Backbone:
């Protein structure tokens, strides 16, 4: 049986990963903050595990640390585990379970072949969650999901991959559980890789030859 990792444990794991990489780099905290564009206080909070940066600052920190591709991926994976939690603080105000979101029958995005398919899958998630209003979603996410952002994500005519952190936040507040989140994370990254072209997507596991041509 898999051991359930708590949000605090995942945050501590991310902080420990950052602290180890900082120690291995030999750089001072002030230098890394300046090079990555983070404030000194934010760096301190990251190292303590009090805050998890979004993907873009995490990549900037990886660049300041001079990480290779493997170490950057390790850092991003630790970050993903720390933010993908249904019980995270951003979702406590609106508990989808109290709105009768079933534990079974969650929409599965794995067959999405492009942003339009993913948009349809996200609409299915919204319905599966009981079609919460845009106002509820905005409040549940502590403002990370603006009403216009959710509207564009679900019904926008200019269909494109949603911004990664907002995509995860939407899934969390709609009640997608931790066990199902891996396939949503993989699907988003797979579709981004396909946009980058076969020289990128061909390296990702699970890609069929037809999908990378």
Residues:
């Amino acid at each position: 049986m898999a051991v359930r990792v708590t949000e605090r444990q995942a945050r501590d794991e991310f902080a420990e990963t950052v602290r180890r990489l900082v120690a291995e780099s030999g750089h001072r905290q002030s230098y890394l903050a300046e090079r990555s564009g983070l404030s000194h206080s934010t760096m301190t909070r990251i190292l303590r595990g009090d805050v998890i940066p979004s993907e873009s600052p995490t990549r900037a920190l990886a660049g300041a640390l001079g990480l290779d591709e493997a170490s950057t991926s390790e850092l991003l994976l630790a970050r993903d585990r720390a933010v993908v939690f249904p019980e995270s603080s951003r979702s406590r105000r609106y508990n989808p379970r109290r709105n009768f979101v079933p534990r079974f029958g969650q929409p599965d995005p794995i067959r999405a072949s492009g942003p339009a398919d993913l948009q349809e899958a996200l609409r299915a998630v919204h319905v599966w969650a009981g079609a919460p209003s845009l106002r509820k979603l905005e409040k549940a996410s502590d403002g990370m999901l603006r009403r216009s952002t959710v509207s564009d994500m679900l019904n926008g005519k200019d269909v494109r991959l949603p911004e990664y952190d907002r995509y995860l936040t939407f899934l969390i507040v709609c009640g997608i559980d931790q066990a199902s989140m891996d396939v949503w994370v993989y699907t988003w990254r797979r579709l981004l890789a396909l946009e980058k072209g076969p020289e990128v997507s061909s390296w990702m596991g699970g890609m069929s030859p037809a999908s990378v041509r």
